[in-house]
Write a structure and sequence with these properties.
7-stranded antiparallel beta sheet, 8-stranded antiparallel beta sheet, Rossmann fold, 3 domains, alpha/beta, 20 helices, Glutamine Phosphoribosylpyrophosphate, subunit 1, domain 1, binds fructose -6-phosphate
Length: 609
């Protein structure tokens, strides 16, 4: 999730672009760059690290020009480095991009065979090559971009300039956001409203499959197919702070609602339904290695550990390898036994958690094969691993992890399918059915999010509860743990997650009319047993809040409150059952007035023991 900006008008472009990037830094911040069109043609300045490094580099470069584009990056393809920073320049065409080009490997091979040379590891550079080549055959940059995009599959918000057409920016959109701002004799564009808000409140929102040409005199919008589009500008009344959060009150709520996109991006370009397989390459192990694995150990802390627990169920079921999930903070002090036949999967949103890194190092010393599932490209844990499967959730700013958790689930599910296929324990039709289900998750999540008002009512009813119990079986168990952790972290209420089957071994003593019990009870293989727990809670006057599959009247009759989620193949239910629990924690915290995005005593990245 990167941020892009563009400016064309009478003023010096560089300071305006830098200001826009500053407001988009929440979308990415591992490197940044500008391309300015001026009398000297196109000049590019890029810098690794935070935006202040680019600001310093721009001061030294004495740029001069009144149109240009800029980018702040959150790496997905190619580690954070200057060559991988945007804009990418090929010939006199400079490109900034937010999104993922799915068929970049195929296009890269084709371009290389035709003599192209590449100066970065990014998918974006492919677009620059395609546009530069098309520009040589067509009379305008606008038409060249259209011709190039006929070849491109994937998600993009693009802003492109050419040295041959000063004072013009061409933009295009597919599945990544792009806003155009109409100023007085000047036009801006950006990934999001905050980048433009200091300059104008009149905005045009590009829709799917549209492109536009921006110049100081105005905007021309067309579809990628060449039909012209008439669009009215809207007036945006958000404050700059509201705008950064896309109108949401907190980053956490915004990130909860970003989950459909985070999952779609994490799956994008990685699944081949035809072959019922993952599009290979990233995992760092082939069929021979997969067959030699005798045990899978998942290492993680906190929320990532809950994702690891779900991963263990999937790996066991689909690949029939013994699998275990371990708290990295325990493993590192335990003199653990790892062997060369272990596949160790380290799950970490930040990729920097000290305990997880230390556990990974002890596995490495024993010769285990290491796979990282991380959200931050080139962070310490992926660097220590043989292979990495990155989640593409974009930066997560709320300290309580939400979209990174579900993106980790999606990634681990892909690993389980991959292992199952490579070890011959997962038949092609079943794998195809599962992968098809996985591709339906973003839509199912949207439906789950649509029910936020019901969750809010439950939060209002229970906002003063001092304790809450969360119960789940099978894949519902990690979700019960996660629901309890979310509530603890941000609302400071005491909450316990338990395997529902353990209830009778202790926690049942806690239940009385004061105790809300959240039961994860969707239609799965354990449903009947979970209903049994629900009845036991009711029989002791406990207050049941159940998370159930749409239209489940049986569970509804036994519950005081029902939170419905859409039906999905059973194994994928954790990706939707967690959503009402994230919202419940959020709304309770919000009603209590706690500092939701920065809860007390917590840090986003835990680099200490
Ligand atoms: C909870 C949360 C933490 C992290 C944990 C591990 O909302 O975010 O429990 O999951 O600190 O962090 P990573 O995933 O960065 O290794």
């Amino acid at each position: 999730m990167c941020g892009i900006v563009g400016y064309v008008g009478p003023r010096q472009a560089a300071p305006i672009l830098l200001d826009g990037l500053r407001r988009l830094e929440y979308r990415g911040y591992d490197s940044a760059g500008l391309a300015i069109q001026g009398a000297r043609g196109i000049e590019i300045v890029r810098a690794v690290g935070k935006l202040e490094n680019l600001t310093r580099a721009v001061e030294g470069a004495k740029l001069d020009g009144s149109s240009g584009i800029g980018h702040t990056r959150w790496a997905t393809h190619g580690r954070p480095s200057e060559p991988n920073a945007h804009p990418h320049l090929v010939g006199d065409v400079a490109v900034v991009h937010n999104g993922i080009i799915e068929n970049h490997l195929e296009l890269k091979r084709e371009l290389a065979a035709d003599g192209a040379t590449f100066s970065s590891d990014t998918d974006t550079e492919i677009v620059a090559h395609l546009v530069a080549r098309a520009r040589a055959r067509t009379p305008s940059l606008f038409l060249a971009v259209r011709a190039a995009l006929e070849r491109v599959r994937g998600a993009y918000a693009l802003a492109i300039v050419s040295g041959a057409e000063p004072g013009k920016i061409v933009v295009a959109k597919s599945a990544s956001p792009l806003v155009i701002g109409l100023g007085d004799g000047e036009v801006l564009c950006g990934s999001d409203v905050p980048a433009l808000l200091s300059y104008t409140r009149r905005m045009l929102f590009l829709e799917e499959g549209e492109m536009a040409e921006l110049s100081a005199s105005g905007v021309r919008i067309e579809t990628l197919a060449g039909e012209s589009v008439a669009r009215e500008a809207k007036r945006i009344d958000w404050s700059p702070v509201q705008a950064e959060k896309d109108g949401y009150k907190h980053f956490m709520l915004k990130e909860i609602f970003e989950q459909p996109r985070a999952i779609a991006d994490t799956l994008r370009g990685r699944i081949s339904l035809e072959q019922a397989e993952l599009v290979d390459g990233e995992l760092g192990f082939d069929a021979k290695v997969a067959q030699g694995i005798e045990r899978v150990v998942l290492l993680a802390c906190g929320t990532s550990y809950h994702a690891a627990l779900a991963g263990r169920y999937w790996i066991e079921q689909l690949s029939r390898v013994p699998a275990q999930a371990e708290l990295a903070s325990e493993v590192r002090y335990r003199e653990p036994v790892f062997t060369k036949k272990d596949l160790v999967i380290a799950v970490s949103q930040s990729g920097e958690t000290a305990d997880t890194l230390a556990a990974v190092r002890s596995a490495r010393e024993a010769g285990a094969r290491l796979l990282a599932v991380a959200n931050v490209l080139d962070s310490a844990i992926p660097r220590a691993a043989d292979g990495s499967l990155y989640t593409h959730a974009g930066p997560e700013i709320g300290v309580a992890s939400t979209k990174c958790f579900t993106a980790q689930l999606a990634a681990l599910f892909m690993v389980a399918v991959h292992l199952g296929r490579r070890r011959g324990s997962l038949a092609e039709p079943r794998a195809r059915e599962l992968l098809r289900g996985l591709l339906e998750v973003p839509a199912a999540m949207r439906h789950a999010l649509d029910r936020k008002d019901t969750v809010y009512e439950v939060a209002r009813r229970w906002q003063h509860a001092r304790h809450m119990l969360f119960l789940g079986r099978g894949l519902g168990f990690p979700i019960a743990l996660e629901g309890a952790l979310k509530l603890k972290e941000i609302s400071y209420a005491h909450a316990e997650g338990y395997a529902a089957g353990e209830m009778k071994h202790g926690p049942i003593a806690l239940i009385d009319e004061e105790m809300p019990v959240v039961v994860i009870a969707p239609h799965d293989a354990q449903y009947e047993k979970t209903l049994g727990n629900l009845q036991e809670v009711r029989a002791r006057d406990g207050r049941v809040i159940s998370v159930v599959t749409d239209g489940d009247e049986q569970a509804a009759r036994l519950s005081e409150h029902v939170l419905e989620v859409p039906a999905l193949p059973e194994l994928l239910l954790p990706l939707v059952t967690v959503i009402p629990l994230q919202l419940l924690a959020y709304f309770i915290a919000e009603l209590k007035g706690t500092d939701v995005d920065q809860p007390r005593n917590l840090a986003k990245t835990v680099t200490v023991e």
